[in-house]
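Structure ticket #2291
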Amino acid sequence: MTTLARPRDMADILTRLRTVHPDSAPRWGRMSAHQMICHASDALRMAMGERRVSPATGPLQRTIVKWLVLYVPVRWPAAIPTRPEIDQEAGGTKPADFARDLAQLESLLARVATLQRTSWPAHPIFGRMSQQAWRRWAYLHTDHHLRQFGA
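Resolution: structure written out below.
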């Protein structure tokens, strides 16, 4: 199972991330490559409790959907709606300097991969998640957006 906790999986994500450029065209969705970099960073800040994101959950999302998303080996579909606080066209971090924003994302990935804490914040859709689940989610979320840009 792929996760940011595994060095090989982390290296794969970083290698793919470095193939994304400001002019990389999306295969789906409205985000530019630079917006995607900022969105992925905002999502990791959410995972570490550094960015508040409004909840949009229910019993089905916190149980069955969470399990399906995290553990069934199927790629996430295109055009999944996001929360407004991490949507770059709404309340998300606005792109500034591509190289600096990319370096920030790499740093945040490393922090999520190595951060040791007993309690992680609740995911806005999936509710409470363990450190292992957050690292799995972070890998899958980043992978999803890298595939969006052909990386």
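Closing remark: The first helix runs from residue 7 to 17.
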